Amino acid sequence: MEQLLHYVWKHKIFPLRELCTTDGRTVEVLNPGLHNTDAGPDFMDAKIKLDGTEWVGSVELHVKSSDWFRHHHEGDEAYENIILHVASEVDVPLFYPNGRKIPQLQLAVPQYVQENYAELNSNDFNPRCRNVVGTLPTFLVHNWMTSLTLERFEERARQIMQRCTALGKDWEYTLFVTLARNFGFGINGDAFEQWALSIPMSAVGKHRDDLFQIEAIFFGQAGLLDGDFTDDYAQKLQKEYCYLRQKFTLTPIATSLWKFLRLRPQNFPHIRIAQLAMLYYEQRLNLSRLLNAETLPEVEALLLTHVSDYWRTHYVFDGKPTQPMERQLSPASLQLIVTNTVAPMLFAYGRYKGDHTLCDCAFALWEQLKAENNTIIRDWAAAGVHCENAADSQALIQLHRKYCQRRDCLRCQFGYEYIRRTPGFLREEEKHKK
Q1: For residue 122, is pLDDT > 70?
Q2: Is 206:178 a contact under the CB 8 Å cutoff?
Q3: What is the C-alpha separation between 14 and 300, in angstroms, rounded?
Q4: pLDDT band at 425 (very low <50, low <70, confident <90, very high)
Q5: Reported confidence tier of residue 433, pLDDT bands at 50, 70, 90
Q6: Which pLDDT band holds residue 37 (cuts at 50, 70, 90)?
Q7: Alpha-carbon distance 434 to 431, whole Å?
Q8: How far apart are CA 42 and CA 34, in angstroms?
Q9: pLDDT at residue 75 in the model
Q10: Where are the domains of the chain?
Q11: CB of 242 within 8 A of CB of 166?
C-alpha cells in the first residue's frame, strides 16, 4: 500500500477537495519533489504551501504515521528537514527535535486506484495493460517510447563501459568482445563472450597476416580442436594450435559452454568463428572505420564477411561436405549485429568522449533499421502499439524486460494511464474515438 501512496503523491492523484493538515492548515502541493530511491526521505526538494506560506524540503510517506517510529526516523538527522509527513492513517503525532509538531497530511489511496492496480497485477496476458494502451493518444505513446529508447541506449552503454573498464580501457578489444558476444545471437552469447575474453589480442595481432594461424587460435581457444580428427585440415589446425598454445600459454574455454540444440547449421559456433576469423584477418572492422562510417550501407559493408575455403563446404570439423556456399551473414543477422553491436558501441564511445554527434549517429542507425519481429513485438502490436523501426522495437524490448517482467507498472507511463483511469474511462475514450 505504501508503494501506491508514493504513486498517488508523485502524480498528484488527490481528492477533489481542499487538502488540510491534521491541525487544520491548508495544503497546496506545488511540486511533489523528486522520488528518492536511496536512503533518506521519500521525496526531495518538494515545494508546498501551508496556509499560503511556501516551504521547500523533503516529504516522507507511510501507511501509518506510527511507522515513523518503526523505521527509527525520530533519531535520524536526514529527516530533520521534513516539511510534511503524509500517511494514509495518522494515528500518532510526530515532532521535530526541538519539540515542534511535524505537519501531517492524511491522504488515502483512492479506491479506484487500488482496484485498477490490483486488476493490472492480476491480468495474465501480455502486455497486462493492453485494455488501455490501445486507447492512448499517439503523442503520449511516442514520448514514452522515445524515453525508453534512450534508456535502452544508456543501459547498453553502461554494459559496454563496464566491459571496457575491465579490459583496461582498450576500445578495440571491447569492440571485438562485444561483436563476438552478439555473434552468438542470444543462444551462444555468453559462450562467445568468454571465448573472446580468452583470446590475447596482442598475441593474435602478431599473426594477423596469416588466416590459418588466426583460425588455429580462434578454434583452439573455443575448445573445438579437442578430439581425434580424420580431416586433414582439422589435423593441421590442431597441430598449429598446439604450437601457439605453448608459445602464448593459452587456455581454451570449456566445450560444454557451446549450445547446438535447435540451432540451424549456419548458426553453429564453427561457422560464426570462421566468419569472425575472416573479419579479423581482413581488418575490415575496427573502431576507426566504424567511427568514420556515415551511412547504414557503409556500416553494413564493414560487417560483410565470408569464410575460408574449408568452411564453404563444412559446418563442423570431420563433417560430411556440403555444396559450396559463401556462408555470409544473412540480411536479418546483419541487422541484428548493427542493432546490438554497432549502434550501442557508437553511443557508448560518444558518451565516453562527450561527442553528441556519435550518439546521434547511433540513434539514426536504429531509426534506419527495420523493427525486430519477435514475440514481444507481436504482443505489443496486438495491443495496438506498432513499431516503425529498430528504435521502436528496442524501446518495447526495454519496456518488456525492465518493467513488464518485473511488474514495475508504477514506473511505466502506460501503467500510470491504466491505474489513474476512473470508472467509465474506457467508455469515454471510445466515445472520443467515434
Answers
A1: yes
A2: no
A3: 53
A4: low
A5: very low
A6: confident
A7: 5
A8: 8
A9: 85
A10: 2-109, 167-329
A11: no
Q: Is the pTM of this model over 0.90?
A: no
Q: Whole-angstrom Cα distance, residue 233 to residue 321?
A: 13
| pLDDT averaged over every residue in the chain | 93
Helix/strand/coil (H/E/C) assignment for every residue in the chain:
CHHHHHHHHHCCCCCCCCEEECCCCEEEEEECCEECCCCCCCEEEEEEEECCEEEEEEEEEEEECCHHHHCCCCCCHHHCCEEEEEEEECCCCCECCCCCECCEEECCCCHHHHHHHHHHHHCCCCCCCHHHHCCCCHHHHHHHHHHHHHHHHHHHHHHHHHHHHHCCCCHHHHHHHHHHHHHCCCCCHHHHHHHHHCCCHHHHHCCCCCHHHHHHHHHHHCCCCCCCCCCHHHHHHHHHHHHHHHHHCCCCCCHHHCCCCCCCHHHCHHHHHHHHHHHHHHCCCCHHHHHHCCCHHHHHHHHCCCCCHHHHCCCCCCCCCCCCCCCCCCHHHHHHHHHHHHHHHHHHHHHHHCCHHHHHHHHHHHHHCCCCCCHHHHHHHHCCCCCCCHHHHHHHHHHHHHHHCCCCHHHCHHHHHHHHCCCCHHHHHHHHHC
Cell 557508437 -> residue: 346
Instruction: Write out the three cell numbers for 42.
Output: 521519500
The string of pLDDT tens digits covering residues 244-287 is 999 999 999 999 999 998 899 999 999 999 999 999 999 888 99
Q: If 0-12 CB within 10 Å is exposed, 13-18 middle and 19+ buried, where does residue 327 land?
A: buried
